[in-house]
């Protein structure tokens, strides 16, 4: 099958190019830029998790950042207690996964409609914000780790060579770890989308009623998609917490929860590359604007976002793809093949 | 089945034999689609029982009903608009089958309905008639043993209607069918037995010839002006 082959070829090209880029960048850029890119990698993993659950499974999870935050906290608490990052990374993925499984079970098996799913995931995030905020008292300890309320958990141990806490990652190593993590997550999600499960969740996005009439238990598939996305977001949170050796409740704030939604929309819903692009554009923009200090950053970003949604409602990648496809169609009037969504 | 004060379907006793082909007629709002929604468990009836092959299926879910082998072509085409014809059929086949079998089932239906030319086309780029046809293909691909068709020929050309009639007779060799239709010519060409719905109740259940010549049936329809002999 030609379609299958070209997608694999595309994947190989992406992996090769990204690898070369990741290896070169630290030689070219100053440490500031490397740190900023590392942060963007962790944000991009969060964006990918939303791109998956929203763009492919059609579940608008307004509280996707909550799993990012839970992952970060779980990593921090475990790493502080055990002094080794390996079990902490596992905890950073496992805890949000289990949390999502439990939470999602009640949400999806109750057959809540889309809008309620959006609202309830947001409310869940805001409750976590309040809860983590009031943990300043010393009684709130997980083992040796103080949760610290709005001040968060400082001095989180960085990722180390398994079993050897004294061999830990510095900024350069962290850049590679974050970069290759993002690449791995991208490849993993691409792969999932090609499996039967991936096709089923796309079918659910297109027509949930029809899926049920065919015999698919959509509650189960929604739950699974939600759980996969939570695991990915949690992993992003692990990388993020490593980036500044710190985690605090601001990841559960409304403003933070809104960010991945904007990244995904700007880059393009229904693609994976788009949300990564969106993340990089917007984080870089807000950093640059922050440096200028001439205008209120949030105001300007809001304005940019509004214009963007009005002018390029589909997002960057789908718009560019449509332009290219139209040109191709004009060049040769032959219609062929599948219109599988790639990105 | 009640909606607030509206009684859409009430006290229906309907039995379909294994391998039977039955037509369902009745004026607009008679409750035909609602009856189908009860059978597919989109609606849960306020009262009454539903049995499928001797099993009480009154309280099972839509997807379970489908897994037992009940397939439906709904009145308003329910397809995967953003996906290609091939992807639509693949999803239908993978509902109850895995692996190589899926591709084989798709190929079989593509062959049977001559869909080669539109295989790569997205559903939202097709005409209403074509979408009806693809939904029929989706239902056939999933290999149900009871097929419900809600006005399958709406929006089709004369040639397509004839093609559909042939197809239905063919499907009936391996499955039972209930077909909702208004076109009497079409009904005559496919069914021996017809059930007439009127105001949520079964008004008459007779052979096609008798029903088509029954004056009372004409009257029910006359008010709506849709009885085309
Ligand atoms: N979800 C609903 N809520 C309220 N009333 C409904 C609902 N669904 C159907 N009805 C009502 O139930 C009655 C039967 O509707 P139904 O769609 O089953 O008729 P039908 O026989 O399929 O008609 P048609 O030939 O127009 O398709 C109508 O009076 C309709 O308005
Ligand atoms: Mg109807």
CATH superfamily of the largest domain in chain B: P-loop containing nucleotide triphosphate hydrolases
The secondary structure category of chain B is alpha/beta
DSSP helix fraction of chain A: over 70%
The global form of chain A is globular
Oligomer: heterodimer
Low-pLDDT segments, ≥5 res of chain B = 225-229
CA radius of gyration of chain B is 18 Å
For the termini of chain A, the CA-CA separation is 20 Å
Order of helices and strands of chain B: EEEHEEHEHHHEHEHEEHH
Q: How confident overall, as mean pLDDT of chain B?
A: 87
DSSP strand (E) fraction of chain A? under 5%
Total number of beta strands of chain B: 10
For the record, the CATH class of the largest domain in chain B is: Alpha Beta
**Major beta sheet of chain A, specifics?**
2 strands, antiparallel
Q: Globular, elongated, flat, extended or rod-shaped: what is the shape of chain B?
A: globular
Q: Tally of extended strands of chain A?
A: 4
The number of helical elements of chain B comes to 9
Number of helices of chain A: 13
Record the SSE blueprint.
The complex is a heterodimer of chains A (343) and B (229).
Chain A: H1 2-28, H2 31-56, H3 64-82, H4 85-109, H5 114-133, E1 141-142, E2 145-146, E3 160-161, E4 164-168, H6 171-194, H7 196-206, H8 208-214, H9 218-244, H10 254-267, H11 273-292, H12 297-311, H13 316-331
Antiparallel strand pairs in A: 1-2, 3-4
Helix pairs in contact in A: 1-6, 2-6, 2-9, 2-10, 2-11, 3-4, 3-9, 4-9, 6-7, 6-9, 7-8, 7-9, 10-11, 11-12
Chain B: E1 2-3, E2 6-7, E3 21-25, H1 32-39, E4 51-52, E5 55-56, H2 62-67, E6 70-73, H3 85-94, H4 100-112, H5 128-141, E7 146-150, H6 158-171, E8 176-180, H7 184-190, E9 193-198, E10 201-207, H8 208-213, H9 215-222
Parallel strand pairs in B: 3-8, 3-9, 6-7, 7-8
Antiparallel strand pairs in B: 1-2, 4-5, 9-10
Helix pairs in contact in B: 3-4, 3-5
Bound molecules: adenosine-5'-triphosphate and magnesium ion.
Adenosine-5'-triphosphate (ATP) binds next to helix 1 of chain B.
